[in-house]
Amino acid sequence: MFTELSLELEILALTVVLGLLHLFLVAGASASRRGIRWNLSSRDSKMPELSGVLGRIQRSFENFKETFAFFAVAILIVQLLKKNNDISSLGAQIYFGARLIYIFIYAAGVPVLRTIVWFISIIGILMVLKVALLN
Predict the structure, then answer these.
(1) Which of 9, 115, 124, 131 could form a disulfide with 5 if both were Cys (CB 3.0 to 4.6 A apart)?
(2) CA 89 to each of CA 64, 70, 84, 93, 95: distance values in angstroms, whole numbers, following the listed order
(3) Three-state SS across 113-127?
(4) pLDDT tens digits, residue range 89-105?
(5) What is the pLDDT of residue 43?
(6) pTM of the full structure
(7) Hey, what's the torsion of the CAs at 58, 63, 68, 74, to 10 degrees?
(8) How far apart are CA 35 and CA 105, in angstroms?
(9) Sign (positive/negative) of CA torsion 94, 127, 68, 61?
(10) Helix, strand, coil fractions of the chain, as percent rounded to 5
């Protein structure tokens, strides 16, 4: 896709795009529930929490933000140390795929599978970290 980037950096870039798409989903959910007027305001007044599918989309984005920094730093360490290999590439792909699937599973309200997919994304991060720290 990107000719001069490693696969890990490509996946990192795609994960940033995924995060932005997730942000737009949350913004759209907020606007549909709370109204454009509230979204454009200073948000000084407390609005009701998003619930149902909209709330689950928002919570899945909060979870994405909690794991993304760890993923990005792990990828950057592998890059800086020039330790890219099949394990770090696979770990990056696993993280991205799991995070993509997580959005839909969380929005659908599937509790146990959601946790399994989250754990799979963490395994992806750990694979990248293994390469960064142990190889």
Answers:
(1) 9
(2) 20, 16, 7, 6, 10
(3) HHHHHHHHHHHHHHH
(4) 999 999 999 999 999 99
(5) 67
(6) 0.89
(7) -170
(8) 26
(9) positive
(10) 80, 0, 20
